[in-house]
Amino acid sequence: MTRKQSEAQRVDGFDPEPMVIVPLKHPWRWTAIIVVSVSIAAAARSAISNPEFQWPVAGQYLFNPLILDGLAQTLLITLVVMILAAIGGTIAALMMLSKSRLLSAPAAIFVWFFRGTPALVQLILWYNLSIVVKNLTLWLPGLGTVYSIPTNDVMTPLVSAIVALSLHESGYMAEIVRSGLKSVNRGQYEASACLGMKPNLALRRIVLPQAMRMIIPPTGNETINLLKTTSLVSIIAVGDLLYSAQSIYARTFETIPLLLVASFWYLAVVSVMSVGQFHLERHFSRDERRSNPSITKVIFGSLIKMRQKEILA
């Protein structure tokens, strides 16, 4: 066998001389694993053996009707607020991307204000709106006052919570959507214009589907953050999960078990939402999963063929 044939066989994957592979040692990695494992075991043992946690009491309240009603209220607020925030944030993002200052400037001020002030402050302000505005009035030119209602009748604790959190989250969603739209190459807009698409159609059919890859991950994180932020509505007496737990331990003085119950349900819902976010991200990046392996095979296949030609030449 000639030298060129031997080298060609090695390129094809056949090596007559077996190689001895010596695995790289990672002593510090194993040290870190041992330290972390011991720490977790010690923390778990301390939590389980500590009688002050009152685990049996927490188990009794886990499916308490009042707790489940508060959980349903929390999920309802999260769903409604996220839908309204997505709509409001998308509108604000499109306004900020507009070339008209009359549209972009108010949108930028909207994002600056509602993203810059704390959610708790906004909750209290909207809940006390009747101090500033006594009545909500519909006035039309030429007709005068068409309809008027006391502000307190409209701005109930639940409505105040939804309005405040929706506006607060809209500021964040506006920046998320804006960055997602700007991540799409400008050539996509030009290509859609060459095909005769109107801007609205190009946005729906070309730009937005590509921008969803950048929009979905931070939106999922923001939804999870919103779920936890809803615990602030207990300040204005909205019967969410935390408020329900507080109303129970205010009577029984079993504070720690009820807080453990609330934490369990928050963690359970966040876990389900994380799984949903994972599948959404996979759905909107499915073309990358199809294309990347084939591209890798083509590149390496071409390199191997070029190497074979150099050896046999």
UniProtKB/TrEMBL annotation:
Checking InterPro entries in the record gives: AA_ABC_transptr_permease_3TM, ArtM/GltK/GlnP/TcyL/YhdX-like, MetI-like, MetI-like_sf
Q: What is the protein's quaternary organization?
A: The complex is composed of two ATP-binding proteins (GltL), two transmembrane proteins (GltJ and GltK) and a solute-binding protein (GltI).
Which Gene3D superfamilies does the record associate with it? Answer: MetI-like (1.10.3720.10)
PANTHER family associated with the record? L-CYSTINE TRANSPORT SYSTEM PERMEASE PROTEIN TCYL, MEMBRANE COMPONENT OF AMINO ACID ABC TRANSPORTER
What does the UniProt function comment say about this protein?
Answer: Part of the ABC transporter complex GltIJKL involved in glutamate and aspartate uptake. Probably responsible for the translocation of the substrate across the membrane.
Family per record: Belongs to the binding-protein-dependent transport system permease family. HisMQ subfamily.
Q: What is this protein called?
A: Glutamate/aspartate import permease protein GltK
Query: Which SUPFAM superfamilies does this entry report, sorted A to Z?
Result: MetI-like (SSF161098)
A Gene Ontology annotation in the biological process aspect, one of them, is: amino acid transport
Locate the transmembrane regions by residue number. Answer: 71-97, 109-129, 256-280
UniProt GO MF annotations: transmembrane transporter activity
GO terms for CC?
A: ATP-binding cassette (ABC) transporter complex
Say where the protein is mainly found.
membrane
**Organism of this sequence:** Rhizobium altiplani
The keyword Transport is annotated on this UniProt entry: yes
ABC transmembrane type-1 domain boundaries: 71-277
Alphabetically sorted, this entry's keywords are: Amino-acid transport, Cell membrane, Membrane, Transmembrane, Transmembrane helix, Transport
Checking CDD domains in the record gives:
TM_PBP2 (cd06261)
Q: Where in the cell is it found?
A: Cell inner membrane; Cell membrane
Its topology with respect to the membrane? Multi-pass membrane protein
The domain of life for this entry's organism is Bacteria
